[in-house]
Amino acid sequence: MAQKKDALGKGLGAIFSDLLETDAGRKAPINTCGIEELRPNRWQPRKNFNDEDQKKLVASVKQSGIIQPIIVRRADSGYEIIAGERRWRAAQAAGLKDVPIVIRKASDVEAAELSLIENLLREELGPLEEADAYVTLMETFKLSQESISARVGKDRSTIANIVRLLKLPDKVKTALTEKKITSGHARCLLALPSPGEQVAALDMILKRELNVRETEKLINRLKQKPAEKKAVVKDRYMADLEKQLTAKCMARVQLKGSSKKGAIEISYRTMDELNRLARYLLDEL
Q1: What are the Cα distances from residue 36, in Å, to 55, 77, 80, 118, 142?
Q2: Domains of the chain, residue spans
Q3: Contact 210, 175 (CB under 8 A)
Q4: How many CB atoms lie within 10 A of CB 35?
């Protein structure tokens, strides 16, 4: 499998030239099978097969058939697709009865890995689909981010940042899936500490139609904005005493703190009012 992993970083052609070879280095034979004998890859990261690219592929298959064989492995009944599910679905939509296949031996982790890489190199995955695929490789197959990085040819930090997108609130993830925002927008939102702030920022991005650079500036402003102080609710005794002192002094009196420790603040607006308060307090003392 070491040679296969080396090929994965070289591009889509390297993947398929490697997959089409037998263990002895010879080209694997291309067979045909009934379209109903195939089943999807259970680790397929792609969720959306109804986009414009798929419609174009269906039209191409109707005109020219399946040019590139579908890579499969044997299953209990029929075959499981390793790479080429889009072509299989297009063949179904085009009304084909048989499709070309190449049968390979592959473990679950190899099937998951190759399905992910095929989609990545064809740029068919949305960012959240890609993130889900990485999580599958990490949690189901216990691969480290470093190991995945070597397989898909992306920096470990890039993979970590993509996976972090799954922490975003549902509203933000929906906007990302519907392409109302880009991955760049989404990564900016991750800098805000709470889901509520992330959703509020998303609303501003959509309303103002901000690009990623403008979004970065918005997020920086929001992070620097001081947090609103929560209003301190005084107990009933302190509130009543505050009113009594205000009436007695004929000036606004605020009690800051608690019944155990705090400060008394008396407000004045003019020098005459200050002198009056001073005389009153000194006389009382």
Answers
A1: 21, 11, 11, 23, 33
A2: 2-125, 172-224, 236-284
A3: no
A4: 18
254 Cβ contact partners less than 8 Å away, ≥ 6 residues apart:
242, 264, 265, 267
| Dihedral angle sign, alpha carbons of residues 102, 103, 105, 107 | positive
User: For residues 182 and 209, is the Cβ–Cβ distance under 8 A?
Assistant: no
| Distance between CA atoms of residues 255 and 243, nearest Å | 10
What is the radius of gyration, based on Cα positions, of the chain? 33
Strand-pair category, 262-266 with 253-257: antiparallel
Give the type of residue at 217: K
Annotated catalytic sites, by residue? 85
pLDDT tens digit string along 170-211?
999 999 999 999 999 999 999 999 999 999 999 999 999 999
| Residue at 92: amino acid letter | Q
12, two tokens? 């889509």
End-to-end CA distance of the chain: 92
The per-residue b/e assignment along 192-229, b for 16 or more CB within 10 angstroms, e otherwise, is: beeeebbbebbeebeeeebeeeebbebbeeeeeeeeee
* DSSP secondary structure code for residue 36 in this structure: G
Instruction: Indicate the pTM of the whole model.
Output: 0.60
Q: What fold characterizes domain 2-125? A: 3.90.1530
State what percent of residues in the chain have pLDDT above 90. Answer: 36
Q: How many helices (H) and strands (E) does the chain have?
A: 14, 7
